[in-house]
Amino acid sequence: MDITGTIRNVLPPKTGEGKNGPWKKQEVILETEGKYPKNICFTFWGDKAESPLFRNGSAVKISFDLESREFNGRWYTDAKGWKVEPAGGEAPQISEDNTIYHDESNAPTDADDLPF
Question: Using CB atoms within 10 A as the burial measure, which of 40, 59, 61, 91 is most buried?
C-alpha cells in the first residue's frame, strides 16, 4: 500500500537489544491529504529508520504494510513502513511554530487575528 502526505512529527528514535541483536525503530506521524486529513503513525525498523526525508514538513510517499495482532483479547494494528520517497508537487508552507499550512489561503495573515 502507498499513501502520500506531509510528515507532521518525527518522534525520537528508539533502540534496544533483542535475542537477534540490536534493533532500531523510528516512528513518524503523517498527515494525509484531502478534505478530511488524518494523522497516521508509521513505524520504520532497522536501516529503514534512517532517512533524510524524516523531517517535519516533508511531503512524502510512504509504502507500508498493515499488520494486526491479538494480545490478551485485544487487537493492535501497526502500520509498518518499508519505503519512503519524496512526493510530487510543492512542499507545504511551514510557519515559525512548525504549524503546517497546505496553501497560503489558510495561513494566518496577522498574529492578532482571532479565528472566530
Answer: 59
